Amino acid sequence: MSIGRIIETPACIAEGAAWLAQVEPRFAAALALTGPLPLRRQSDGFSQLLKAIVSQQVSVASANAIWERLQAAGMTDPAVVTATDEDSLRALGLSRQKARYAKALAAAGIDYPALRALPTHEVVAHLVAVPGIGHWTAEIYAMFSLGRADVFAPGDLALQEAARLLFDLPDRPRPAALARMAAGWSPWRAVAARLLWAYYRQAKNREGVA
């Protein structure tokens, strides 16, 4: 099975945005508000997933501070995490649960280069098998670290709220309902996600001004 289009440059984002604006007038209107969408490509590998675990359920500032301590201690290397006990990880700012998750990720033996060649649903299946990695984290990894153009994260609350606002829905769509909506945005669902996130920020800023 093909892995589909890979987003590598801003031109890829612009192509996807133009396609979405053509098939959905509300996307065209949203794009007029947001302007060009960000590339947001990241590196792949162990450190990106560990960083995602660190970021779960804490503020951005807290996550950044903890991540800086982990980086300084060499914890971006799975072998170093494996050789470090949980108490030492907790001393760097991880909760007991996240320290366990970090150890589990380091022990998982994921072949990160091999993930690049797998279909997205297989990437997600591989990642969610690791404690501490849920569907949202796996989908975000596929979207930004692997550059998959046709992946979406229907469990993301900001995407749900953006869809409610943009499509004038009575309620925030549940993940299954949003996934059904997003099926119509294939093969550029990852660009649709970027557009919805950008639109959500615009909407929140407008509310703040009001």
Helices and strands in order:
Blueprint: H1 10-23, H2 25-34, H3 46-55, H4 60-72, H5 78-82, H6 86-91, H7 96-107, H8 112-115, H9 120-128, H10 135-145, H11 157-166, H12 175-183, H13 189-209
Please characterize this protein's 3D structure.
This protein is mainly α. The protein folds into two domains: 10-41 and 150-209, Endonuclease Iii, domain 2, CATH 1.10.1670; 46-145, Endonuclease III, domain 1. The chain is built from 13 helices and no strands. The protein has helices at 10-23, 25-34, 46-55, 60-72, 78-82, 86-91, 96-107, 112-115, 120-128, 135-145, 157-166, 175-183, 189-209. Helix 1 packs across helix 2 (25-34) and helix 11 crosses helix 13 (189-209). The protein is globular, with a radius of gyration of 18 Å. The N and C termini lie far apart (49 Å).
Keywords:
210 residues, mainly alpha, Endonuclease Iii, domain 2, Endonuclease III, domain 1, 2 domains, 13 helices, 0% strand
Q: What is the CATH topology of the largest domain?
A: Endonuclease III, domain 1
Overall outline = globular
Tell me the total number of β-strands.
Answer: 0
Tell me about the biggest sheet? none
Low-confidence stretches: none
Give the H and E element order: HHHHHHHHHHHHH
**Percent in helix:** 55-70%
By CATH, the architecture of the largest domain is named: Orthogonal Bundle
What count of domains describes the coordinates?
2
Termini Cα gap: 49 Å
**CATH level-4 homologous superfamily of the largest domain:** Hypothetical protein, domain 2
The percentage of residues in β strands lies in: under 5%
Structural class: mainly alpha
Q: Give the rounded overall mean pLDDT.
A: 94
Number of helices: 13
